[in-house]
């Protein structure tokens, strides 16, 4: 056990250093991209007003626009390491505060959608694999269409039906307080979840089908175990491994898709902030959000590898390899 | 993956025979052919000028003159859908062609040369993998400017890893087969072996992957146009039309936003069914 533990620790250390390297490369790409961008930030800051050369110079000094490239990159990077992402050009407030104020909406939305994806995806996948026949065909057709439906198309469809025609849910805003927030975020969460839920359902289905055909399931049946116990305690445990891998990929994809869903539902989250900041050439905010999304993307993949041994005891000994 | 590519690819058959049979696939090919024809002949098919603004006719319902009604600015929705097929299909085509050329080149070179070339290329591919496609496109748009070109370029780069990985593993398993060895021993130059023998043998796999990518590229490009980063108004595009139709949708006139959405779903599902169908055939021929 201690061997496995030290192996796992070594793996984590290796993966974390790879992650750090990736973030370094990403930060460099993001920073140099913004550096090369045509159109200067100070002209945006002057907001089209004709300003004196002195004012322009003051702005250039404030944002250190005259420093050489590497000096600016290093000071920016140094700031990020200490948790300072700089000043937003359009909101004139620290990027950290700005993102923090938007985080609740996005985090609630992503967690809500992720819960929907796991529950509905797994239930549909297991039921389709166990029942077969018409249920299975319906599940396959449904998931094929759902996988091909972009989140923003789901968003307008839901808005049209449940917000405009039926009036059950609000079409805009994130709401205040927990219950109100959940009510407001239900349509956005469904829009965010649908295609990924279909993906998880498909993966669960094929994984369950493979398990249900194995000998141990037959043995369990012969021994007279109740079917529900065979399905959930035996086959499902084994079928879960590929689903966990997929779930990791899905959760990181959700962060990008929130840009579309938040825009469609007029939510003040990180995704819509990214869209706003790109439109306004608010580089510090764009840089910060891109970096955060890539970081979460990589971190989610790391977490999946760490969760593996919990899901599948067979890989416990081999983690270090 | 490696097992799957083994023997199926040695036998080469005509594309026509690969496509027949499967009902879902036949239907998909039919629908997509229709879309392509509509895009090609848009000027002859469209009943109205897609950009003719007429505020007096704003948000009309379906009628004989406007089969799908008009949008917020009084433009004919059907005509905009027909013209929108052009950018909505050309964009993903650009992404897939770019990603396929780049990805197949990288994959084949990595598999053929091996060693440090393979290591370096694989690392570069992993780095791009860390960037979600839409995010890369948003980053590029913020650096360049919004438009179809920038988003297609960004997505072509973002999709390259998928093509490169698949090509590399397929080319790697072909690389060590006897026929390639035999050609090498006979002294044929590497380029001619790759172009005349290796590439045709991995072509079906590339085609299946490209078809799947086409659907995803369509979703991503439409999304970017929806955000205002892709095709710019007033040009007709399915993704942009959804964004333009949102206000009307909230006022209870959903057709100008829902119709392009339905078309996107049909096209994406069609491409993914074709991709799965081709992959299925390769797998079955393998058994």
Automatic annotation (TrEMBL), chain A:
<keyword id="KW-0813">Transport</keyword>
<feature type="domain" description="ABC transmembrane type-1">
    <location>
        <begin position="103"/>
        <end position="304"/>
    </location>
</feature>
<feature type="transmembrane region" description="Helical">
    <location>
        <begin position="151"/>
        <end position="170"/>
    </location>
</feature>
<dbReference type="Pfam" id="PF19300">
    <property type="entry name" value="BPD_transp_1_N"/>
</dbReference>
<dbReference type="InterPro" id="IPR035906">
    <property type="entry name" value="MetI-like_sf"/>
</dbReference>
<dbReference type="Pfam" id="PF00528">
    <property type="entry name" value="BPD_transp_1"/>
</dbReference>
<feature type="transmembrane region" description="Helical">
    <location>
        <begin position="239"/>
        <end position="265"/>
    </location>
</feature>
<keyword id="KW-0812">Transmembrane</keyword>
<dbReference type="InterPro" id="IPR045621">
    <property type="entry name" value="BPD_transp_1_N"/>
</dbReference>
<feature type="transmembrane region" description="Helical">
    <location>
        <begin position="16"/>
        <end position="37"/>
    </location>
</feature>
<feature type="transmembrane region" description="Helical">
    <location>
        <begin position="109"/>
        <end position="130"/>
    </location>
</feature>
<feature type="transmembrane region" description="Helical">
    <location>
        <begin position="182"/>
        <end position="201"/>
    </location>
</feature>
<keyword id="KW-0472">Membrane</keyword>
<comment type="similarity">
    <text>Belongs to the binding-protein-dependent transport system permease family.</text>
</comment>
<feature type="transmembrane region" description="Helical">
    <location>
        <begin position="285"/>
        <end position="308"/>
    </location>
</feature>
<keyword id="KW-1133">Transmembrane helix</keyword>
<keyword id="KW-1003">Cell membrane</keyword>
<protein>
    <submittedName>
        <fullName>ABC transporter permease</fullName>
    </submittedName>
</protein>
<dbReference type="InterPro" id="IPR000515">
    <property type="entry name" value="MetI-like"/>
</dbReference>
Automatic annotation (TrEMBL), chain B:
<feature type="transmembrane region" description="Helical">
    <location>
        <begin position="249"/>
        <end position="274"/>
    </location>
</feature>
<protein>
    <submittedName>
        <fullName>ABC transporter permease</fullName>
    </submittedName>
</protein>
<feature type="transmembrane region" description="Helical">
    <location>
        <begin position="133"/>
        <end position="159"/>
    </location>
</feature>
<keyword id="KW-0472">Membrane</keyword>
<dbReference type="Pfam" id="PF12911">
    <property type="entry name" value="OppC_N"/>
</dbReference>
<keyword id="KW-0813">Transport</keyword>
<dbReference type="Pfam" id="PF00528">
    <property type="entry name" value="BPD_transp_1"/>
</dbReference>
<dbReference type="InterPro" id="IPR025966">
    <property type="entry name" value="OppC_N"/>
</dbReference>
<feature type="transmembrane region" description="Helical">
    <location>
        <begin position="206"/>
        <end position="229"/>
    </location>
</feature>
<keyword id="KW-1133">Transmembrane helix</keyword>
<dbReference type="InterPro" id="IPR000515">
    <property type="entry name" value="MetI-like"/>
</dbReference>
<feature type="transmembrane region" description="Helical">
    <location>
        <begin position="21"/>
        <end position="46"/>
    </location>
</feature>
<keyword id="KW-0812">Transmembrane</keyword>
<keyword id="KW-1003">Cell membrane</keyword>
<feature type="transmembrane region" description="Helical">
    <location>
        <begin position="89"/>
        <end position="112"/>
    </location>
</feature>
<dbReference type="InterPro" id="IPR035906">
    <property type="entry name" value="MetI-like_sf"/>
</dbReference>
<comment type="similarity">
    <text>Belongs to the binding-protein-dependent transport system permease family.</text>
</comment>
<feature type="domain" description="ABC transmembrane type-1">
    <location>
        <begin position="85"/>
        <end position="275"/>
    </location>
</feature>
<dbReference type="InterPro" id="IPR050366">
    <property type="entry name" value="BP-dependent_transpt_permease"/>
</dbReference>
């Amino acid at each position: 056990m201690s061997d496995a533990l030290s192996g796992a620790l070594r793996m984590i250390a290796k993966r974390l250093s790879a992650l750090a390297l990736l973030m370094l490369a990403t930060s460099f790409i993001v920073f140099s991209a913004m550096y090369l961008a045509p159109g200067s930030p100070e002209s945006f800051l002057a907001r089209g007003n004709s300003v004196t050369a002195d004012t322009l110079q003051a702005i250039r000094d404030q944002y250190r626009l005259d420093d050489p490239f590497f000096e600016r990159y290093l000071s920016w990077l140094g700031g990020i390491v200490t948790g300072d992402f700089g000043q937003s050009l359009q909101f004139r407030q620290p990027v950290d505060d700005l993102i923090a104020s938007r985080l609740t909406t996005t985090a609630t939305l992503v967690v809500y959608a992720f819960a929907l994806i796991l529950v509905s995806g797994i239930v549909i996948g297991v039921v389709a694999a166990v029942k077969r026949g018409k249920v299975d065909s319906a599940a396959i057709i449904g998931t094929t269409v759902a996988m091909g439906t972009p989140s923003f198309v789901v968003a307008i469809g839901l808005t049209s039906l449940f917000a405009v025609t039926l009036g059950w849910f609000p079409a805009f805003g994130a709401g205040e307080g927990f219950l109100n927030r959940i009510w407001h975020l239900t349509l956005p969460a469904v829009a965010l979840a649908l295609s990924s839920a279909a993906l998880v359902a498909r993966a669960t289905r094929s994984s369950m089908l493979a398990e249900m055909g194995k000998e141990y399931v037959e043995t369990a049946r012969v021994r007279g175990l109740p079917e529900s116990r065979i399905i959930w305690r035996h086959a499902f445990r084994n079928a879960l491994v590929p689903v966990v891998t997929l779930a990791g990929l899905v959760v990181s994809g959700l962060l990008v898709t929130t840009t579309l869903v938040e825009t469609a539902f007029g939510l003040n989250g990180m995704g819509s902030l990214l869209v706003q900041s790109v439109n306004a050439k608010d580089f510090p905010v764009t840089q910060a959000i891109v970096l955060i999304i890539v970081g979460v993307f990589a971190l989610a993949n790391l977490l999946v590898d760490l969760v593996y041994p919990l899901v599948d005891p067979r890989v416990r000994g081999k983690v270090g390899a | 993956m490696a097992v799957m590519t083994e023997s199926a690819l040695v036998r080469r058959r005509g594309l026509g025979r690969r496509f027949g049979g499967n009902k879902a696939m036949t239907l998909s090919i039919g629908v997509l052919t229709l879309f392509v024809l509509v895009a090609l002949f848009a000027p002859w098919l469209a009943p109205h000028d897609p950009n003719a603004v007429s505020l007096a006719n704003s948000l009309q319902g379906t009628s004989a003159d406007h089969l799908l009604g008009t949008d917020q600015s009084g433009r004919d929705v059907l005509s905009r859908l027909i013209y929108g097929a052009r950018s909505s299909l050309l964009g993903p085509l650009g992404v897939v062609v770019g990603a396929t050329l780049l990805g197949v080149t990288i994959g084949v070179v990595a598999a053929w040369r091996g060693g440090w070339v393979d290591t370096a290329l694989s690392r570069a591919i992993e780095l791009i993998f860390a960037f979600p496609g839409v995010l890369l496109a948003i980053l590029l748009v913020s650096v360049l400017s919004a438009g179809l070109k920038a988003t297609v370029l960004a997505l072509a780069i973002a999709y390259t890893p998928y093509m490169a990985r698949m090509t590399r593993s397929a080319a790697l398993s072909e690389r060590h087969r006897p026929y390639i060895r035999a050609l090498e021993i006979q002294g044929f130059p590497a380029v001619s072996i790759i172009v005349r023998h290796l590439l045709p043998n991995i072509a079906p796999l590339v085609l299946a992957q490209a078809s799947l990518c086409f659907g995803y590229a369509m979703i991503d490009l439409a999304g970017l146009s929806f955000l205002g980063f892709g095709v710019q108004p007033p040009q007709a595009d399915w993704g942009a039309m959804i964004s333009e139709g949102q206000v009307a949708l909230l006022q209870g006139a959903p057709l100008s936003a829902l119709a392009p959405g339905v078309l996107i779903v049909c096209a994406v599902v069609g491409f993914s069914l074709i991709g799965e169908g081709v992959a299925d055939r390769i797998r079955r021929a393998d058994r």
